[in-house]
């Protein structure tokens, strides 16, 4: 589990195959939180809910096996443009991407930007270059396309 710890954070209830887990998201200051639960290999029933006792911000969840395979993480946001990434919390972005240790990063932008007639192509190119540079800084061993 990937979530935000913060003042007045609430509790996240995770149930796996009927077994309850409770994750407290309260902290004295804002920072990323991580919870790892090891499970046996095979299918599982997972449910998430909040207790309703504070704000809970969940970034995501990974369900992975220890065997080799392909894992797909997405940061897709409908209507997003490449430059939107540059407005995200830089330290948190870097921490999260580094934690995932990607072997390949695919950046797929351009369709939404095609209607941005007022943006000079040089400005778009500079923003996209910064996005790619940041990926390369955080995940220098990853292929990028």
Count of DSSP E strands? 8
Largest sheet: 3 strands, antiparallel
| C-alpha geometry | globular
The largest sheet has its strands arranged as: 4-1-6
Distance between the termini: 27 Å
Structure explained in plain terms:
With 145 residues, this protein is α+β, with helices and mostly antiparallel strands. The chain contains two helices and eight strands, in the order ββββββαβαβ. Strands 4-1-6 form a three-stranded antiparallel sheet, with no helix packed on it. Strand 7, helix 2 (121-138) and strand 8 form a beta-alpha-beta unit. It is globular and about 55 Å long. The two termini are 27 Å apart.
Present the secondary structure layout.
Layout: E1 2-5, E2 11-16, E3 19-24, E4 31-34, E5 46-50, E6 57-60, H1 90-100, E7 104-105, H2 121-138, E8 143-144
Parallel strand pairs: 7-8
Antiparallel strand pairs: 1-4, 1-6, 2-3, 2-5
In short:
20% of the residues lie in helices and 23% in strands.
For the structure shown, list the relevant keywords:
alpha+beta, 2 helices, globular, single chain, 20% helix, three-stranded antiparallel β-sheet, 145 residues
């Amino acid at each position: 589990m990937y979530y935000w710890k913060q003042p007045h954070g609430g509790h996240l209830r995770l149930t796996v195959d009927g077994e309850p887990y409770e994750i407290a998201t309260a902290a004295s200051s804002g920072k990323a939180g991580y919870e790892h639960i090891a499970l046996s290999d095979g299918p599982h029933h997972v449910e998430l809910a909040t207790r309703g006792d504070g704000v809970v911000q969940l970034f995501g969840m990974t369900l992975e096996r220890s065997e080799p395979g392909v894992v797909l993480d997405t940061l897709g946001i409908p209507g997003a443009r490449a430059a939107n990434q540059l407005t995200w919390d830089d330290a948190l972005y870097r921490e999260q991407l580094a934690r995932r240790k990607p072997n390949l990063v695919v950046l797929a932008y351009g369709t939404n930007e095609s209607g941005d007639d007022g943006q000079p192509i040089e400005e778009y190119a500079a923003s996209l270059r910064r996005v790619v540079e940041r990926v390369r800084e955080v995940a220098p061993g990853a292929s990028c396309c």
